Amino acid sequence: MECICGHLILDNHDHLSNKGHVIPDQLWLDLLDRINSAIERPGKTDKERETACMAVRKKLNDSKRTAWQCDTCERLYIDDTNGRTLAFESASTGVATGIFRGF
Fold first, then answer.
1. pLDDT tens-digit profile of 44-55?
2. What total number of domains does the chain contain?
3. In the chain, at which residue ranges do the beta strands (DSSP E only) sit?
4. Is residue 98 part of a domain?
5. How far apart are CA 96 and CA 99, in angstroms?
6. How many whole angstroms separate alpha carbon 53 and alpha carbon 47?
């Protein structure tokens, strides 16, 4: 995708330092409940455990929205619930770089 500033934001492999996933607060507790259930009540069979893991993965995937940050101008791009990518500009420059970097 091309940023408004003209910089090209690539999304062509895993572990990108300028890409993140946002989970809305309205979905957060349900997601945690699903994870807790899979941990606290694991299935008796391999198939039941696999089903529980897949349910957690599906809930995670359904709950998250993808987000990217431009390395040049620090703008954020976040997918909305309708599949549109929206741009957000930081009010402070030079301080918001790398907000999706891991620890």
1. 888 988 888 898
2. 1
3. 19-22, 65-69, 76-79, 85-88
4. no
5. 6
6. 10
